[in-house]
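Subject: Sanity check before I submit

Could someone independently write out the structure tokens for this chain? I want to compare against mine line by line before I put it in a report. The sequence has 115 residues.
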Amino acid sequence: MRVAQDEIPGLWIEEVQQPAEQPGASIQQQFEAFHELNPWVLAALEQLTADCVTKGFGHVGIGMLFELLRWSYGRATQGDPFKLNNNYRSRYVRLLIERHPEWSPVFEVRALRAA
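---
Independent answer below. Compare away.
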């Protein structure tokens, strides 16, 4: 399933794939497994961030982006549950900045507490 939605031009929503359970896996390992199955999530976060930066936002919160993505997913899929782990927020911010260093001033990044 790949769905374009009308509220945010250029944002594509796809079905979330959940990785197999990984007992004892670190947050980073869990994130990497999720990201490998769902590369569209990073692309969607990039689209949302680019839209905010273009509109002049001085600060973009990854929490806001996650909630926008959850809202868009719910509307595009007729309410299917969207499981996007909040533990992945810090990892996605780091990927966004790695791919778009010019965005580093708009995100606040704290030290990771867990590997």
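---
OP: Matches mine. For the report I'm noting this point. The longest strand covers residues 2-4.
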